[in-house]
Amino acid sequence: MLPPLTVSGWLRYDIVARLLCGLEGVDTILEVGAGMGAVGARLARRYAYIGVEPDLRSAAMAQERVARTGKGSVLKGDVSALPSDFRADLVCAFEVLEHIGDDEGALRQWREFLRPGGVLMISVPAWQRRFGASDSKVGHYRRYDRHDLVGLLESAGFGDVRLLIYGFPLGYALQPIWNLLARRSDAPASIADRTSASGRWIQPPPWLGWAWQFLSLPFRLIQRPLVGTDLGTGFVAVARRAQLDHRINGPQVLE
């Protein structure tokens, strides 16, 4: 049995899975910030998968979950735990970038673990104006506006940037609930500790996984025609590693 996803996780994964089906030449996947392995276990069924996760408790759970698929591994730590010559066809990071102070520096670091022409896929919370108590609770530095996210990816050495949005309409209803719960609960003082605990907040027990999958289905269908609009609460971005040539205006995509 695959590990459960949250309702928001299902909305996001619906976009991710559909994008992956449209990508060619992807055999090896690196996931940065594997969390408790719910997505990693799904990716490891189809791809040569490796995840990195700095939180000890989450990494142990992710290792167990990925191991059940029969292939793939999870390392405790960040990308510095990887061999320096490791290269993946796709690097993904779901709900990770907003936890990092130097987000451009992180993107540049992740880029180095992509083969030439490889693909980056990330998800981030959308719209800085929606920053609230739940963002602070889980250690977010920011949310992202469309233009700023595209510019950030291009500055970090990526081209062919494509943004899709998810979460309409359910995300609008869920966020006030998460904000209320966040205001009523204690949170660690440091943003690093809040980030470490974020992957374990509001996670469904395994026996409820089927219910969240079933309940999220109509909302996954509703959001599909709207992925190119501004209606939603999260972005999924796809981009290719570009060759940085300062003699030319902008990054050039490596084929």
Walkthrough of the structure:
The chain has 255 residues and is of the alpha/beta class. Helices cover 37% and strands 22% of the residues. The protein has 9 helices and 8 strands. It has helices spanning 7-21, 38-43, 56-67, 103-111, 133-137, 146-155, 170-183, 191-198, 209-223, and strands spanning 28-32, 48-53, 73-76, 88-94, 114-125, 158-166, 234-243, 252-253. Strands 1, 2, 3, 4, 5, 6, 7 and 8 form an 8-stranded mixed beta sheet that branches. Helix 1 crosses helix 9 (209-223).
Strand proportion:
15-25%
Largest sheet: 8 strands, mixed
> If helices are DSSP runs of H or I spanning 4 or more residues, what is the number of helices?
9
User: Distance N terminus to C terminus?
Assistant: 38 Å
N-to-C SSE series?
HEHEHEEHEHHEHHHEE
What's the total count of β strands? 8
**Helix content range of the residues, please?**
25-40%
Low-confidence residue ranges: none
Rg value = 17 Å
Structural class: alpha/beta
Mean pLDDT: 92
Q: Characterize the overall form.
A: globular
In short:
37% of the residues lie in helices and 22% in strands. With 255 residues, it is an alpha/beta fold.
List the helices and strands and how they pair.
Blueprint: H1 7-21, E1 28-32, H2 38-43, E2 48-53, H3 56-67, E3 73-76, E4 88-94, H4 103-111, E5 114-125, H5 133-137, H6 146-155, E6 158-166, H7 170-183, H8 191-198, H9 209-223, E7 234-243, E8 252-253
Parallel strand pairs: 1-2, 1-4, 2-3, 4-5
Antiparallel strand pairs: 5-7, 6-7, 7-8
Helix pairs in contact: 1-9
